[in-house]
Amino acid sequence: MPPPPPPSQGAMATGAANHPLPCSVGRPKGTNQRRRPASLSVRASSDANTVTLLDYGAGNVRSVRNAIRHLGFNIRDVRSPEDILAADRLVFPGVGAFGSAMDVLNRTGMADALREYIRRDRPFLGICLGLQLLFDSSEENGPVSGLGVIPGVVRRFDSSEGLIVPHIGWNALQITKDTQLLQGADGHHVYFVHSYHALPSDANRDWISSTCNYGESFISSISMGNIEAVQFHPEKSGATGLSIFEKFLSPNSSGAKAPAHRKASKLAKRVIACLDVRSNDNGDLVVTKGDQYDVRDHSSSKEVRNLGKPVELASQYYIDGADEVSFLNITGFRAFPLGDLPMLEVLRCASEKVFVPLTVGGGIRDFTDGSGRYYSSLEVASEYFRSGADKISIGSDAVFAAEAYLQTGVKTGKSSLEQISRVYGNQAVVVSIDPRRVYVKSPDEVQFRTVKVSSKGPLGEEYAWYQCTVVSGGRDSRPIGAYELAKAVEELGAGEILLNCIDCDGQGGGFDIDLIKMVSDAVTIPVIASSGAGSVEHFSEVFEKTNASAALAAGIFHRKEVPILAVKEHLVDSGVEVRMQ
User: Fold this and answer.
1) Is 276 labeled as catalytic in the residue annotation?
2) What global pTM score does this model have?
3) 82 assigned to active site
4) Distance between CA 581 and CA 578 in Å, rounded?
5) Where, per UniProt, does this protein localize (predicted)?
6) How much is the pLDDT for 331?
């Protein structure tokens, strides 16, 4: 399936104009106007303040736009091959699959224009897939020929020995060449999200400016003359990433000073702030927090708990050092046309202020709005990506898809999970699993994978299985276990698992270590531990006792019971690698 059309052609890309929120951070300097939609990019009066952006519409490029505007620059979009050749500075934030990208570039004539632009040694910055496409070919759904600028083949990380793939998170750079772009980046964590990588060789050695280690050493950046490209995402790498961007955009400036930090050495464990967003009884969007998924106050008022405004809290968590911010939409805005969904505005505004990854979950499924207009789950996901999401989280739909797959053994390709991962890549798809603990006296009592529990059940039971649930007018239990669901969704294309536990939610007694260890040992994709954090010690415990790649919390951050910085300082003291600002 080809990638969806860019924002300028999409039928649903105009919702921001109808329901604007007062976003201000990230606009070009000296203007107070509401930011134009991505399809109407500003044309600067001076080329010195203009960056040409090659966006072929296959994912979240809004974050790159916001980073560029945040640094005071305007954007000219590529509409034709001639626009590439006329550019003074070109940014190519490649996203999605290698083959789909090359198909678009070849079909539009932009591949030849890119080769010529690079041959002329004009200022060029490729990001993620924008680096990989410079190589001879890729094994992703291939082999597929690339632009052929740099010798080498792009290969998938080898997960056969237990390496978690995709490579998601904050990893360290090993600088191999003195370049202006990476000055000050040595020893900092930067954000990666990819399953394929280019390997160093004698043939491409002169191009390499840094490497990164994940299972093996791979190329994390290249530099030759005015040609620069990075495998990581500077637009999602916080202050370090913005500094790298500024060095490309303003080559005569020193860039923003990198913040003080502890020297990065390897892939860091991530600390994620989660915001449950819903409308309260007055119709206002608020951040709330449940107690075993009940978000209403236990006082006589029974009102929805209001813990703050979504964009303001997300911005503060970014400042506080959160490695990612996750929004969970727990209100079904089914009466709205897709382009007007309130969560889209939350994403648009948050992405102007938050330069770490954003995930959004809730409502990623087929639906028909109040006017009778039908939207596929792929259309819904596409609009979330265009609005600033880096990853989308799927819940109930993934459960139903997994059940069907386990019953038939057939991948139909029609589920939301399969469609979205095929178009945007599995690294863009998180599956949220919401199980309840069910105690049993013996593993032989059930057909699902059980675990010997750390604390016995109410009747002295020594074992439990974890029954998955879905939202269907309530929270219904399904005949599938968390272990079986995790294995199935990995097969169907999930790139990450958000592992909740209803029994632990809002209790503050710690993560369910038994559950998290069972699932993180069973899959080769990253697992995010969720539900139950109540102290800094709970974070070190989950990282020391399980293979979780990240830990997520909500209420303790919202209520300021445990600051994010305190969590990270405790993890450092415990010998756990984390990103420090």
Assistant:
1) yes
2) 0.86
3) no
4) 10
5) Plastid, Chloroplast
6) 64
